[in-house]
User: Fold these one by one.
Assistant:
Number 1:
Amino acid sequence: MSFIITTDTSCDEMKNTLDDLDIPWIPLTFTIKDETFDDNFSSDTEYQEFYAKLKSGAMPITSQITPLSHEDFFERVANEKKADAIIHLSLSSGLSDTANSAKLGAKNYMKRNKGVKIYCVDTLAATQTHNILLYEAAKMRDKGLSAKKAYEELESLKVRVQGWFMVDSLFHLKRGGRVSGASAVIGTILNIKPILILDFEGKLQVVKKAKGIHKAINILIETIKEYRTDETNEFYVIQANAHNSAELLKECIKREYPKANVKIGWLGPIIGTHCGDGMLGLTFIGKDRKEIR
């Protein structure tokens, strides 16, 4: 291979699948009642159990990966894979300082190991929005692109990865300070579903509100019409224990675009902690993201 791809686990791909794709990963962590867990899920059951804990009232806390942990990770990968070039894809700097920690860890490692070049991509993304970019990196690797060329293409591509999300419960947004307590109560009573996007800086922004799941899905479909290009044919539906809604969104996409390839993937514990059970999302590569001033 021309380079090694690495990632943190905010991509929300099954970790055994990452192993099969030969993509080493470093886990993010979450803490519930003073017990810390690695985000190392490889089965539907593990995701379901996490959301069962949320529904029962658990309030997880997430933490970023330190520069030293990244440095140790890069050293292990370089030694095990005998790599002289690594491209690392990390959780959005608009959501966490993990991307900056990765860059610092890579810089520290490269100071000690002049023969290894590490390119750190701040994906400006999370969950399946990160994952779709990871698969693009794998295509570039398998085509034999150089690490430098692949890095440049990923940097250009990442602002075209659309990420739109419908949040089922406003109370998790209240906890994160994105809506007030009164808005959370009133919105829940009125069945209001906030629509969030990953903006040009990789931050989550509330941009629309829908009353009920069907209107929310309509907004997501209209998003495709607005932001897709003629080359857009792959869509990732993101769900947080919202299987029926995810299947409905998939059906709607296939109805509009019969030749589309639609994959349904989980929202994992790192972002799920802040968005909550029932979240539904959509990601695809299209036109540039919104810039919100």
Note: The domain at 4-158 is CATH 3.40.50.10170 (Rossmann fold).
Number 2:
Amino acid sequence: MAGTNSALGRQDEGDLPKAASVILVHPQLGENIGMCARAMLNCAVTDLRLVKPRDGWPNPDAEAAAAGAVALLENAKVYETTAAAVADLDFVLATTARGRGMVKDVYTAEAAGREIHTRHARGVDCGILFGPERTGLENDDVALADAILSIPLNPGFSSLNLAQAVLLVSYSWLCADNPFAGEEIAPALDENEPAKKNEIENLMTQLQEELEKNRFFRSPEQKPTLLRNIRNFFFRVGMTRQDVRTLHGIFSSLTGKRRDK
């Protein structure tokens, strides 16, 4: 649908409310990435992250489908793993229609939009995971998220293409009211700041090493599932940086090792 007004659209990014990062995990077609970029820019969402695109990056097909959102593609960040793509984020939502047997809060698109506004007003960096076009997110990707974003649609025909899903979620954020608009927000104390994803991963690494030394995993087949369950717990509870430091101290005390600072 035509109607872009370049005079109105060239706003300073600093004038716009902060949006969540959009993370496309193993996207397949370059055209789909380009259409996602177009949908994002329609809604003033500008941080695009790609996890190991199937056809490589950059992709000329993406630029052709972006319909003018080329700068967003040029600034897209590419990662080898989902964990790396969310490492600097504090709160991550995974788009999926299924709970995957994991205990997580479930948001609609509208509720997620409001939650992102609220968290960004407090200085929390947010991101939204979208899975590959044909299969969706894998369980290990969903385990990295704090909560699930599910879009209730006609159960008889609920399939969305990737760009449709990105547009719907981005538009819900754009339409959401920010309850903190016009109010001055006191910055959180350092010890109450949410932990970065990479800080929690470092904690997981320390824990896994000790569990392996103490033969916690009874079989190689059992190990991935147990680690996923533990990781899901850490990401679900909304840990702060102080929580992470405390657990590092507990592990070091139990093992008789001091952790290097």
Note: The longest strand covers residues 21-25.
Number 3:
Amino acid sequence: MGRPRLRDLGITVGQLPPGPLNAITDVAGVRVGHATVIHDTPSVARTGVTAIWPGGDDSWERAVFAGYHSFNGNGEMTGTIWIEEQGLLASPFCITNTHAVGVVRDALVAYAVEHKVPMEWHLPVTAETYDGWLSDAESFPVTPAHAFAALDAAASGPVAEGNVGGGTGMICHAFKGGIGTASRVVKTAGETFTVGALVQANYGDRALFRVDGVPVGREIGPDVVPHHRDLATPGGSIIVILATDAPLLPIQCKRLARRATTGLAWVGGIGSNGSGDIFLAFATGNRVARGVKIAAVRMIAPDQITPLFQAAAEATEEAILNAVVAAETMTGFKGHSVHALPHDRLCAAMRKYGRLK
């Protein structure tokens, strides 16, 4: 049985209600899959691939509007120049480790060719964070087969979190990090919409880590839970994916993506110079079929979009916390270990500040 999520510990953050799964897959059509790579020979690997299908089986055929935001750009997300130009996302996409971006990006092209997707060329999205502390990144353990496996494994329903997929070897606020997800439901413009977030969390200083405003990172300092490095530097990266079923245009998706910054800041992210904090938002409320001459679209009026901004911030915050809470202690490359956030000490800190009975 896996580790519990944040709410399983009785800790609730934010004001808006979550969706039924409290996951990005609460947005209808969104599917997530992981391929986790763990071995000690011939090299030490603690890595993997996470795949996201934005619109289910017809993600290739009916594009969604999308936009991205770089909070701090020491990272990579391929395909964003074309998204910025056209505002459309017309394929599944992946998150992996830094040294595997090219392999996984090319695997997405090969996957499309193998499945006879009728497109002349492909500019797929692949994002990364660096897992070289726990995984021998220079042994290049991720292969096209792992990307294929993550794409094939993608499903609706609950999403595995923590040490899985692209998040396998990641570290967050000097605790074990990885994949996390959450969602929020909002009512605006006379309708009900869902905003979901999925993160690959690999950033942050221990002293800055907060849960619902509680300075948990200071309460659980390196004297209590050892830091993975003697001299900690607040670098690392985070990828945030936001999905919504609201009818947003590309510029509105870009605005939504920016709000991930707020959720990141609530947990303690500051966008350090060494951090690659890159966010992608897509909206399934409009679908643009390939070959259509004129696409009929809807959009939420600007003065009705603020609740979606709050949902994006809250979902991002809780997704990061779920990543840390779900992750387990891991030992990897060169014997390096990264400790999980101890749930008992987390709950004690929350009680101390009146956030938990």
Note: The chain is about 25% helix and 25% strand.
